[in-house]
Fold:
Amino acid sequence: MSNVYVIGVGMTPFGKHPERNATDLGAEAALAAIHDAGIEPRQIEAAYCGHVFQGMAMGQRVLAHIGLAGIPLTNVENVCSSGAVAIREASLAIRAGEHGVVLAFGTEHLTSRFRGALTPDPDDVEAAVGLTMPGIYALRARRYFEDFGVSREQLALVPVKNKGNAALNPFAQFQEPVTVEQVLESRPIAEPLNLLDCSPVTDGAAAAILASAAAVRRLGKRGAIRLAASALRTGTVDPEPTPMTFEPLTDATAQDAYERAGIAPEDVNLAEVHDCFSIAEALRVEGLGLFPVGEYLTAVERGDASIGGRLPVNPSGGLLGKGHPLGATGVAQVVELVRQLRGEAGERQVEGAKVGLAHCRGGKAAGIEGAACTVQVLTR
Amino acid sequence: MTSASQPLASRNAAVPLRPGLLEVDTDGTGHLLGSRCPSCGAFFFPQRHVCSRCLTEELEATPLSPRGTVYTCTVIHQAAPGFEVPYALGYVDLPEGVRVLGQIAGVEPDAVRIGMEVELSLEPFGEDDQGRELIGYRFRPAPEERR
Structure:
């Protein structure tokens, strides 16, 4: 089976784009990736589109805009992991030998679909009794405080770090750093989480061009970044309740990815993880085995997760700072890793990065820990 | 309008908030419904078709204990349309080994805490799109917590 490489990436600025729509955003990101790859559009053999709330034929609408209507396209909905799963599906098509050059993109115009807190599907019993997405993470944060003895102030360091990184990223929704005081004084959403602990409602799109080893040679692409693993799992139904302060789903998906990529957590130089809420970043990196369980916030306090620290986490600004257009999020993480591994990340460059990890997970249904989780490993 | 004090069973056309969620007894009280695996004894909530531990298919619908302990809690300030904020929400661990999410009422939202003992209370939960009254549930502090 062929190795899989990323030969081009692109994204739109993330933010609120009231004058645009998901088609227009998706087309901009796809064209940016095609131009970045330096290929002819007709060299793309197939496409995968991740989105959550954009309705039927989302990907086809984008292809029609960029002159590629007619090629095989699959729309992917896997909640917040939709974009990451579009990349995974593209990589599987390449590994299977079916296609040599594949476009994977994600797009979401969330401001036209949602205001305020997202909720699980209304059919779900937990949504019916009043659960919101911030509520899930607030419940986990309260228990995390209890189990590990960390403080509300320490948790605020996560949005401070990520919004600070976002201020170095011209594609990020937030362009200004925030202080611990601003996080603590922002309005409560689900206690103990405040507004600045929550990822914003975001419009945006991101795209990547994946290629087989043969296609990379044929196209003469030197220095292509390798997609060394793209793992996917779904949340399990456990016969006994498990601690909500650790993520077996993230752990299991990460083990699949580490094994496939032939690496250990210690080999990772930077990570883009799914910080939909401040507490989520701690749960992710601890589940991934990148930091000891219960110790992440102390590590953030020491600067270990900052750009220039032992293991920078979310140098792009993450979901908290860059924004979270659901279907585009997983692709945008890969865009960031590719730019970092190429040494093109400007002021937020992680020096000497060779191994990058991207983690997405999202969704909720009663009785399962999480809906879908992906872990991707990129290397140069 | 029916009042909350009227026995639920006496109301016309009241239906559970979600199918298979709960059962109302003749005295107006009731219980949540879970699944029990006859082979390995595991309990599940909400109900499942197949046991995730041993894959037995013939799971039995079973009433769950009405009393449990708050595993974690929050106060919701921004909710979906139709919910009046703020309200307390908690995961409650029941003796069967299932964890159930519910609102915690009958106490100031800020006073709910991890470890609190709570009891199930079947309560009106609005109407469905056919105008039928929906029966949902909340947890309320157990008698010894109210002293």
